[in-house]
Amino acid sequence: MKKITKIILADDHDVVKHGVESILRQTISGPEIIKVSSVNELRNQMLCHEDIHLIILDIKMPGGNTVETVKNIKANYPETKILMYSAYEEPQYAINFIRNGADGYLGKSQPLQKIALAIKVLENDKRFVDENIEDEVFNNNGANDLSLSNILSHREFQILALLAEGKSNIDISGELNLQKSTVSTYKKRIMQKLNINNNIGLVDAYRTGFNNFVD
C-alpha cells in the first residue's frame, strides 16, 4: 500500500480548493498540495513534478476536456490516482469517468470528510464511488463482463497485445514512446487485473479474450 501524500488539487473555485486543502491537512501527515485552476496548469504541473500520488479533479475545468485529460494522465502516469470531485452527482457522469480511467468519483454535496475516506480506499488500490450511486455505477461499468475490453484500459490492452506478440518491455517502450519503467508498471497492473503471474498466461488470456481463459 502506497501512502498518498503528494496531491494536485484541480478546481477553478478557490473556496472549494480551500475546503478540500483544509481536510487534507487535517487527515494526512505532511502532505504536499499543489493547487491549479485549469487543465493547462494541471498538465504543466504533471510535467514539473514527479511521482504525483493523487489528483483531485473537478469534472468541469477551463482549458480542456476533462475526460480526455483523465485518459491522457492515465496513459502517461498509470500509477497516479484520479479522484473526480464534482457538482454533477448523477450516476452517468461517474460511469463515464470510471470507464475512462478515473479511480474514484465523489459529489461535492457530500461531507468533506468523505475525501479522507476516498483516499484510504484509493491507497488500497480499490475504486471509490459514493454509496449513493455505487451500485448503479458498478453494475453499469461492466463489472460482471470478463472480456478484456471491459477489464483493461485501452493502453493496457495495447500493451498486452504487444506482449502476446513476444515483444519485450524495451521493444514496447520504443514503439509506444513510453519509459521502460512505465511499460513495466502497465504489465504489473495487467497481471494483477487478470490474476496472472507469467508471460504464458498473458498470451493465453490475449488469444482467448480472457472469457474462455477464466472459465
UniProtKB/TrEMBL annotation:
CDD domains: LuxR_C_like, REC_NarL-like. One of its GO terms (biological process) is phosphorelay signal transduction system. Keywords: DNA-binding, Phosphoprotein. One of its GO terms (molecular function) is DNA binding. Residues 6-123 form the Response regulatory domain. Residues 145-210 form the HTH luxR-type domain. It holds the Pfam family Response_reg. Coiled coil: none annotated. Gene3D superfamilies: 3.40.50.2300. The modification 4-aspartylphosphate is found at D58. PANTHER family: TWO-COMPONENT RESPONSE REGULATOR. This is Response regulator containing a CheY-like receiver domain and an HTH DNA-binding domain. It comes from Psychroflexus torquis (strain ATCC 700755 / CIP 106069 / ACAM 623).
